[in-house]
Design brief:
This protein is α/β, with parallel strands linked by helices and about 325 residues long. The chain contains ten helices and 17 strands. The strands form four sheets. Strands 2-17-16-15-3-6-7 form a seven-stranded parallel β-sheet, sandwiched between helices. α4 packs parallel to α5 (about 150-160). The longest helix has 13 residues, at about 200-215. The radius of gyration is 20 Å and the shape is elongated. It starts with a strand and ends in a 9-residue tail after the last strand. Residues about 5-35 have low confidence and may be disordered.
Length: about 325
Amino acid sequence: MESIITPQPHRLVSSGSEHPVQSSTPALAGTSDGGSSPPSHHLSTPEEISSFVDQMDTFIFDCDGVLWLGNDTIKGAPEFLHELVAKGKRIIYVTNNSSKSRKTYVGKFKKLGFPAEPDNIFGSAYAAAYYLKNMLNFPADKKVYVVGMQGIVDELAEMGIQAVGAGDDNAPLQETEFENGTLGPDESIGAVLLGFDSQINYRKYAKAFTYLTANKGKVHFLATNEDRTYPISGSIYPGTGSLLAALIHSVNRRPDAVLGKPSQNMMNTILERFHLDPARTCMVGDRLDTDIAFGKLGKLHTLLVMTGVTSVEERDAKKGPVTAEYWIESVGHLRQR
């Protein structure tokens, strides 16, 4: 049975402000010169919260660190989202976690008590598959080498794209494989896609390196996101961006595209699909550099919650690269009482 987390603001301490890889996301207007940013407004009274909710037609929620931590639900979060549905508000979930497909995520949402259907879930695995299929017109006779987990494989399959690697390459690399051709070039590989991978190993890095360097310019290099850390069950660990850094360094090449937040590839798909009015849409997240930047680049309202990785110091930094329009202790604090 899943446990309920009572919000304890700021208990997760960010592990630093330096990123292992330089982001490809454009700088937010008015913040690239190191100047002061407007401070976030704390939603602290019932009147302010009610007015804030009434102004919005759509709420876009990040998941990890916002609605739950691992399998632990943030107190009051499911109830608040059901209140939004009862008010006729649209709910969209956006996550950079690529370990699960949308269909798998529906099971988790419902198990934890959240209203959800596949069509209102946008994960970075789906965004990557959509990009390959619709933006790159990925050839049917080519395969994607996946450094990642089953969620990516499932979303690629939904798009009719062949995938190799992932769980099939979880076994440790043997010394003899350097000599027997196992790690050699493969002309059938048309793209390397890296996402979160709790089973990442040297075999996967070696294959991805070979495919990207043996056929320079012929193999697409994609990543689901560049999150530096991964919050789960009250702790933080290395995220996809940290795993990606090793591959970037070895091949001396940045990804051709990063598909998750704060990239606007995902935002454009959401806005077009649901015909949203940015002026009446709010992005709710726990990360300034991904969630809040994602919303601000899309010209949405932004709300920072303090149940994830952002520290008080980062939230209140006068010269921070990104600040949220509003902040609150947790999603549960938005409930109408």
